[in-house]
Amino acid sequence: MRSWLAPVVVTCSCLLASCTSSAGAGQDPVESRSPTSPSARSSEQGVVTEDYLPGLAAQLRAPAGEGPAPLVVLVPGGGWATADPTGLVPLAEALTAQGSSTSLITYSTTSGGSRFPTTVDDVACAIRWSAQQAQASGHPPSRTIVLGHSAGGHLAALVAFSGDEFGGACPYQSVPIDGLIGIAGIYDTDEFAPVLSPWMPDSPSGDPVAWQLVNPVHWLEVSADELSDLQVLLLHGDADTIVPISQTTALEGELNAAEVEVTKTVLPGLGHLDVFEADHVEAPITDWLTTWQ
Q1: Is 11 within the bounds of a domain?
Q2: Are the C-beta atoms of 134 and 59 separated by less than 8 Å?
Q3: Does residue 19 lie within any of the structural domains?
Q4: 17 in a structural domain
Q5: With a threshold of 0.90, does the pTM exceed it?
Q6: For the chain: N or C, fewer Cβ within 10 A?
Q7: What is the reported pLDDT for 33?
Q8: CA Rg, the chain, in Å?
Q9: What is the mean pLDDT of the chain?
Q10: What is the pLDDT of residue 36?
Q11: Number of structural domains found in the chain
């Protein structure tokens, strides 16, 4: 079985389907995400890869030197069906080179039989593991930021807006989330109900409470008073035909109404499958991190 740490050639990052790669056509990247031997857990200097929960791997990269550093936890997309982080490796490497600790995570998905809220609990737990590992690496987080693309943007926003609602059984200490970076994310899930249905335990009419809890906008409305210190960066390509830019625009309006500081950047000519690439988003992300006081 091939680990998600092994070299692959990524050809896409999709909302409704898994990425395809040289790991083999039709192979589910989630099935092969965990390191297969202890030697794979420290394959390069400054990198720690472990299972933060059984069968769920995360990979922390530490910047040069020692001392506090921002921690950016990267949550891959995949339509809640896959969670292959390979496409985000270049962005993690770029942000680490700029002085941030970064953590690439996986999480359970519908391809393995997982549904809401388990997936969200996984993401919340991975963030806590990442903060603990950053501390152990000599870089205690100066602030903790969760970044997500597409469905990963939905999961990142859900965890960022909901406090300690998710991850309650996680063995690691809870940490506050100081920032959210959403890249072509899905934020108002009511508009994506047909896509989310395989991931949800019941239909909207069968379990309306669960469908409310899975919507980041709901949590933004409920938790606005607790999010005064949160800072948000929203990125979206204006050529995205998979997740409409209206999702980002609408969330910007909701954040403004809740008096949460938000920066929105529209990236000209970029579609859903290339907007997360390091060449496109490293500069706006590092600028945002640098000017964030």
Answers
A1: no
A2: no
A3: no
A4: no
A5: no
A6: C
A7: 32
A8: 17
A9: 87
A10: 28
A11: 1
